[in-house]
Design goal:
Blueprint (H helix, E strand, L loop, with lengths): L2 H19 L9 H28 L5 H24 L5 H23 L10 H19 L2 E2 L3 E2 H34 L1
Antiparallel strand pairs: 1-2
Helix pairs in contact: 1-2, 1-3, 2-3, 2-5, 3-4, 3-5, 4-6, 5-6
């Protein structure tokens, strides 16, 4: 087990902790405290996502398993957080469905393209990275659900950013499907 893979596993292990914080009874932890703990856990997990990739490249510890596990951990973490936010009525079902549905669809598309030897046709591009970055800022804002610095409404900013992420999600999904279909037509 390499350090980058261990960090990825830590990200997976944080998922039940983020969800579990909200299952604690109110006398043990107030809602603002639950929001803070979940936000910190999510942010630390998001940082490990960047850090494990950096270390894997820097220390030349990339592996096929790590390349598989890293995006799975990301998708599980984002999906779990979105479901928590949906349960807390901080986001709408449509936004959650768009983002989670896109992840399922693109994962299936990538698997199919790999089976037909065209995996490079749907490689990660800048649009997917911008979408991910937008989500990774929006979700902690929505988990926190309060005011930063006494004036910044994390709920309003998080909602706005997640709506942008949903639009980017649809745009990137159409982009990937277009690339895949164009690649298939060109190879026929």
């Amino acid at each position: 087990m390499t350090v980058p893979t261990f960090l990825t596993w830590l990200r997976v292990a944080a998922i039940p902790l983020i969800i579990g914080v909200y299952a604690l009874p109110e006398p043990w932890l107030s809602m603002p405290a639950k929001n803070l703990v979940a936000t910190v856990l999510f942010v630390l997990s998001a940082i490990t996502d960047w850090f494990d990739g950096f270390l894997a490249r820097r220390w030349q510890q990339t592996s096929a398993f790590g390349a598989f596990l890293d995006p799975v951990a990301d998708k599980l973490m984002v999906s779990a957080a979105l479901l928590v936010l949906l349960e807390l009525s901080r986001i709408g079902a449509l936004v959650a469905l768009i983002i989670i549905g896109r992840e399922i669809a693109i994962s299936a598309l990538r698997e199919w393209m790999a089976r037909i030897g065209r995996s490079r046709a749907v490689a990660v591009n800048w649009l997917g990275k911008v979408k991910t970055a937008t989500q990774m800022v929006a979700i902690p804002f929505l988990l926190y659900d309060g005011r930063l610095f006494g004036f910044l409404s994390t709920s309003a900013w998080g909602t706005w950013l997640l709506d942008i992420a949903a639009v980017l999600t649809l745009w990137s999904m159409m982009y990937y499907f277009k690339l895949a279909l164009t690649g298939i037509k060109l190879s026929e």
